[in-house]
Amino acid sequence: MKTKRVTLYQTGTEKAKEAGYILDGGRYYGAWEEEIEKALETYRQCREKFIREKVSVDNPGEFLSVSEALTEYQAFLEDCESMTPKDSSRCEVIGEYFQASAEQLDADVSAYQMSILTLATLGVATPEWALADVTTTSMQGRLEPGVNGFDYYNRTLKQAVEIFKDVEDELSEWATARRTQLPVHLFEEERTEFQRLTNQLDALYEAAEYQVARMVPQRVLYWQADIEDQRHALGYERQSIDVLVRNDFPLREFSSPMGQRSQPCQLAALNARHA
C-alpha cells in the first residue's frame, strides 16, 4: 500500500511538472507566479517613470507631475495648432520638442495603467487598484481616483518623514551642545502634525485593505510606497496551490486532509481560479 502511494505521488508530481506547475518545499506553485514577478517589475518601472517631475511649458523653472505636464503640454500644442496661437514664436521654437514629450508621456501613462490592470488580472491589487473607483466602467475613470489616492499617500508620507528627520536633527544638535534636559513642550507642534499625517496614512492603507478584502475575484494587496515605508510595506508572496486533481475530476466541494472544506482544482482550471 505504501509503495502504491509513493508511486501515485511520483506520478502526480511528474504530471504537475509537465503541466507547468512548480514544486518547491513540498508546495505546488502555478507557472503564472513567474509571470506575476515579471508584471511586478514592469509595474515598478512604470511607476518610477510616472512619478518623475517634468518641466512646465507655461512656467519655465517650475516642475509638474506627469499627469499635470501631459495636460499642460497638450493644451499648449492645441493652442499652437489654432489659427491664432497665443505665442507663435514659442510654437516654432519648442513646439516639436513638446510634441515628442507629450507623446512619450502619453505612452508612459498608458503603460503605467496597463501594468496595474495586468497585475489585477493576475490576482494582485496594487495601491492604485485598491483605491480605485470600482463603480466606474472606463479604465481611466476607474484608475484615476486610485492613482490620485496613492499619490496623496506618498506626498503625505514624505511630509511625515521630513518632520521626523527635522526633529532627529534638532535632537542631535541639542545632545552635541550638551544642553540641559529637553523642555517638556519641545516639539509639541511637530508631534501633533506628525500624528495627523500618520493618521491619514493609516486611513488610506486601511481603506485599501478593506477594498481588497471585498474584491471578487479575490486578490492579494501589494503595497510599496515611492520611498521607504516600514509601517505599511507589503510585498508579494507566491501563492501555493492547496489541491491538484485530474482534468476529469468532478468539481464539487470535498473535505481536505486538513479537515477543512475546500474546492478541488482541475489543472486546466487553475489559471481561472487564481486570476
Descriptive labels:
9 strands, mainly alpha, 2 domains, 3-stranded antiparallel β-sheet
Going across the biggest sheet, name each strand in turn.
1-2-7
Give the biggest sheet.
Answer: 3 strands, antiparallel
Helix content bin:
55-70%
Question: What is the count of helical runs?
Answer: 8
- Look at the helices and sheets and give the structural class: mainly alpha
Gap from first CA to last CA: 38 Å
Low-confidence stretches: 251-275
Number of strands: 9
Question: Your description of this structure?
Answer:
There is one protein chain. By secondary structure, the chain is mostly helical. It folds into two domains: 217 residues, no CATH class; 32 residues, no CATH class. The protein has eight helices and nine strands. Strands 1-2-7 form a three-stranded antiparallel beta sheet, covered by helices on one side. A two-stranded antiparallel ribbon has the order 3-4. A hairpin with a 7-residue loop joins strand 3 and strand 4. The protein is flat, with a radius of gyration of 26 Å. The C terminus is likely disordered.
Concise account of the structure shown:
The protein has 275 residues and is mainly alpha-helical. Helix content is 58%, strand content 7%.
Q: Which helices and strands, and how do they pair?
A:
Elements (H helix, E strand, L loop, with lengths): L1 H17 L3 E3 L2 E3 L2 H19 L3 E2 L7 E2 L1 H16 L6 H34 L2 E2 L1 H4 L8 H38 L11 H26 L6 E2 L18 E2 L12 E2 L5 E2 L7 H5 L1
Parallel strand pairs: 5-6
Antiparallel strand pairs: 1-2, 2-7, 3-4, 8-9
